[in-house]
Amino acid sequence: MRLKTQLITSTLLLGICVSSGLAQQPVKGQTPPKQSAGGQAESVPDTVTISPPQPAQTSQPVNGPGYMEPAQVKALAHKIWIAEYRINDLLAQVHPEKWKISNVTRNSFNQTLENLHGAMQGLEEWRAQFEKRPDGMYFGFQTYTAINAALPRLDGVGRAASQFENPSLGAQYSQAGNQLFDLQQALQPYIAYLLRNPDQALYLAQTNLAGCQSQLGSALNGQSGPAKPLKNTFVEFHGRRKSKGQPEATDNRKSLQGGETKAASKTEKKAESQPRKTPSPP
Questions:
Q1: For 74-116, what is each residue's pLDDT tens digit?
Q2: Residue-range definition of the domain harbouring residue 112
Q3: N- or C-end of the chain: fewer Cβ atoms within 10 A?
Q4: Count of the separate structural domains present in the chain
């Protein structure tokens, strides 16, 4: 996935460089501006012609080292399935519960046998997907590695079957293992072919990208002009400053208390200014 992401990124950057180069090329048939009535020639912007870089060859070459037709790949995947079927048939003929061995040896063999069943199941899953996608680099690589996981366990089961079950059965296990190994060796050049071509395409894309960036930098050199310094400006802040140590809640509380005190003093002054009424005699 990382290889595909790098290849896509390089292709996009190449497209940007090519479009920039085409924009810099002068239009065919364009004549230089004529002199004006005052005799002064009009200013003509400088143009730089950039030749577009060679695109990366992303297509895989036919008849390269390890190349196989899709029909040949499917035929090879079918042969792997036949080898799997033969091995699964041999596994059904092993009966470790009848062997005269210790429980420790029997448990160890059962663990190896269980691991072999799991390896064969994983191999069939990857092989089926690779048969549907003969050009799938990921499925082909996983099929190749799944055979690696099955071969040593198959050898261990074959040795135990030859020793405790039947020497003829052990020879059949050895023959099936050799057949699966030969199929893996026949698949190896095609897997190398699938892995090699994207790597070469990525290298070509990165090489063209470096050349495109160099040409684009030379074309844009001096067109933007020198940098202009900015004037110093004074920023004026409008707002009420608060002294440190006086939170807003304290200011509000003090303002409320001051308002209550002023209201009380006004009430007292009004009461003092009014004359007191004496009660009339009965």
A1: 999 999 999 999 999 999 999 999 899 999 999 999 999 999 9
A2: 77-205
A3: C
A4: 1
